[in-house]
Amino acid sequence: MSTYAEKYFPEEPSGPKVVTETIPGPKGKAAIKSLSEVFDTRCTFFITDYSKSIGNYIVDADGNVLLDAYCQVASIGMGYNNPNLIKVAKSDKMVRAIVDRPALGNFAGVDYEEMQRDVIKYAPKGQKYVWNGLSGADANELALKAVFFNYQSTKRGFDNPFTPEEEVSVMQNLPPGNPELAVLSFTRAFHGRLFATASLTRSKPLHKMDMPAFHWPTAEFPGYKYPLEGNEEVNKKEDERCLALVEDRFKNWGSPIAAVIVEPIQSEGGDNHADAAFFQGLRDITLKYGAKLIIDEVQTGCGGTGIMWDHERYNITPPPDLVTFSKKMQSSGYFFHDPKLVPNLPYRQFNTWCGDPKNILMSGAIMKEINEKDLLPALRETGLYFYSKLEELQKEFPGFIRNLRGKGKGCFMAFDVPSPEKRAEFLAKMRINGVNLGDCGEVGVRLRPGLVFGKKHVDIFIPIARKVIASL
Amino acid sequence: MPIADKYFPDEPKAPHMITPCPGPASKAKLAELSTAFDTKAAFFIADFYNSLGNYICDADGNLLLDAYCQISSIALGYNNPELLKAAQTKEMATALVNRPALACFPSSDYYEILKEGLLSVAPEGLDRVCTAHTGSDANEMAFKACLMYQATKKRAGKPFTQLELDSVMKNETPGASDMVILSFTNGFHGRLFGSLSTTHSKPIHKLDIPAFPWPTAPFPTVKYPLEDHVEENKAEDERCLKELDHVLSTFPHQIAAAIIEPVQSEGGDNHASATFFQGVRELTKKHGVLLIVDEVQCGGGGSGKMWLHQHYGIRPDLMTFSKKMQNAGFFYHDPLLAGDRPYRQFNTWCGDPSKALIAKAIIHEIKENDLLKGVNETAEYLYGKLEEIREKYSKLVLNLRGKGRGFFIAFDMPSAEIRDKFLWGCRQKGLNLGGCGDVGVRLRPGLTFGKKHVDILVGVVESELSEMSNH
């Protein structure tokens, strides 16, 4: 039986092809130079020719063809130029969505409900409604706003009016109108880079430096010992220690904690995993203290870990209060189930666009494709195969590959290398040998291929990695 | 030939109302939609397939002349044929299915798209762009740019200190900044946490959300008609500038930037004089404070110039945009505003090439068809008609304003109830209008609005006012 990639990307290259001595090559360098006059290019890996990229392969301006295991910072799930998505991009619905972009809160279109239901159909277990944003950070901040509205209106009485003191103080950015409420996040977490989300983000100083921040608490995210087999007791103690810290914050923080926000796998912060006991513990503590639990699935969601929503594997009971999404979904926002997370009055959770039908349409099409074409069982199989191959590499190079993690979570895997310098060298050499990869945390290498990555791509990746590591 | 005739030969000749608005079909659809999505702010369900040019069609088949245009965000009318073409190109399909992480892997055509599009209309002196996703996002990224810029200057080439590196991870100073962003009373700059801390339009926009203790300075309250209040308005400008100077001199924390709208739109369509804006520019310069002009609602040609602040002859350090451009972001010049090192101003998408493409197409149309000239001509005609109406209904139409500012015209009504009744009444007669501030009515038509549309708008407004004054 042919794989998804074989079926839908029949012209996908059979392997990488590097034609210049450096990446970027001369054409790419020239293009970066002109672009840099008008747009900051200091983060640019290379200039990409998207019209030539296909499936799991990204093509740069010099014609280099690279196997892509980074996929636009984990945001391209379906491969480049997926023909089934191109059909959607060319549909009349899409064309209208682009030229007649509505202010959705005021003037939703006749076809909007269907588009939205096509997304809600695949909502995480227990979630019923959606509110749209325009980026992952936006989604998280909108979720925080929903929580704060709910917290204060629960205190006030859901339909009770604002007090005159609230209405006056709010215009001066002071309590009680602007209350001192907090949200707890975890060490090494990443939730975005706008002002509230940067206050939650604790991945790296560079992500936050020089921004004013809310004085919000953190607790430690578990740091497990690997391999997990054989370290069960130590890791269980680690869960207990971290949960005790969370509870301590609830008891002792200076302002009320309205919510806990957590990633199922801390991605930017180093691909840190935790287990069901930890997540259920968070659920229990948030219930005990009347706080909401927000699961940030921006990077993990939409199939990346072999199931649609990564937190579902932990069977958190009752389900989380809000689940945020973006990236691979192409659309952003949060799912929720309690109608009281919608404010009692209009124009509180509001902005001009309230989402974008163009993205919502794409989102529905992506999830339909994932489900109808059964991409996730195949991805889980590929992931196990990939993991076993990486395990072999780890055994071969125990001094280089450490803490291999992500077994059973599709291709959402990572490992650590000895130093940031070694990592930079490794990534650069992988690229010039035809594999595009990304990093995370201090010394992590993360694998973020699309959902259409198959065993044959693993078989291309592994020998290149072996050759590169041996050369280091 | 008026531009609407060229683009939309089949545009309706007049509004056509079959049912009340919202009618039964809209209501039924809203009831259904409300089980999945908050519809409390919905006017009606729109049928964009059957909307055309300056007319929006609703789910009941009512055709309304639209002078609100998706809260000032549709520039060239519904189903504009040139934009339909742009949306059907191969470039667009490629951009839609291969959305890049723009800072890491920009597309080979991104430079050209920016150069021919957004940058071709950048305000004088601002020759770089940082692309974003929404107006709030654009403003917050502009704040970040200013905060990093000021901190970098203060650091004078030294690396981050250990204390900064440690404290920032606890959200404490000195790593987390105690610098502030100054905004103006009644301003609106968005609803995320940083932008909301600079928004001072209405309590409902801000209540229950934690905020930064950032300062405000007063925005002038101008008296109308202008020609009858020259001295008072001059004194008001002076008072506000003096107060601004005072805040800039005495606020206990460093003010990294000031942000201001050329016309405060959500806050009530409050205009100020060129003298005031020039004063703001001089004072911010004097105090080493960066000036951000927020053109999210004002920009994109509705004012008769591409950017409304160009009416005042000032040059800001940063200028944010969104709405009519469909693409959001900010223009700037000083490379230090991009951060002293990479990955400081960064996120996954850093914009969206499909939006940059549509912005390019919109800009091309504005230039190609000299749409701003049309806006100025039509707007002058519109303002004249509204002046006549104000004279006739002087108890209902107050503080008519926006002369010489293109379609950026508004007036007040005696109370919020009367205003809301007026807006609802106009809608029943086939004119879609929006409010702003407590008692304001704002006109926000697209750039394809012509004299024939003015005549229809004026007819509906007059008939509604006449009914209201007879009751």
From TrEMBL, chain A:
UniProt name for this protein: 4-aminobutyrate aminotransferase
State the top-level EC class.
Answer: transferase
A GO biological process held by the record: gamma-aminobutyric acid catabolic process
Q: Which cofactor does it need?
A: pyridoxal 5'-phosphate
In the UniProt record, which is one GO cellular component term?
A: mitochondrion
Q: Name one GO molecular function term.
A: 4-aminobutyrate:2-oxoglutarate transaminase activity
- CDD domains annotated for this entry? OAT_like
Pfam annotation, one family: Aminotran_3
EC number(s) on file: 2.6.1.19
Keyword Endoplasmic reticulum listed = no
Keyword Transferase included in the entry's annotation: yes
- PANTHER family per record: 4-AMINOBUTYRATE AMINOTRANSFERASE, MITOCHONDRIAL, AMINOTRANSFERASE
Signal peptide (UniProt feature, chain positions): none
Q: Which organism is it from?
A: Brettanomyces naardenensis (Yeast)
Question: Which reaction does this chain catalyze?
Answer: 4-aminobutanoate + 2-oxoglutarate = succinate semialdehyde + L-glutamate
TrEMBL record, chain B:
What molecular function does GO assign, one term?
Answer: pyridoxal phosphate binding
Q: Which reaction does it catalyse?
A: 4-aminobutanoate + 2-oxoglutarate = succinate semialdehyde + L-glutamate
Q: Could you give one GO CC term from the UniProt record?
A: mitochondrion
Taken from the record, one Pfam family name reads Aminotran_3
Q: Which cofactor does it need?
A: pyridoxal 5'-phosphate
Family to which this protein belongs: Belongs to the class-III pyridoxal-phosphate-dependent aminotransferase family.
Instruction: Tell me the GO BP annotations in alphabetical order.
Output: gamma-aminobutyric acid catabolic process
Family matches, as InterPro entries: 4NH2But_aminotransferase_euk (IPR004631), Aminotrans_3 (IPR005814), PyrdxlP-dep_Trfase (IPR015424), PyrdxlP-dep_Trfase_major (IPR015421), PyrdxlP-dep_Trfase_small (IPR015422)
User: What is the name of the protein in this document?
Assistant: 4-aminobutyrate aminotransferase
Enzyme Commission code: 2.6.1.19
The question of whether Cytoplasm is a record keyword is answered with no
Is this entry keyworded Transferase?
Answer: yes
Q: Write out the entry's keywords from A to Z.
A: Aminotransferase, Pyridoxal phosphate, Transferase
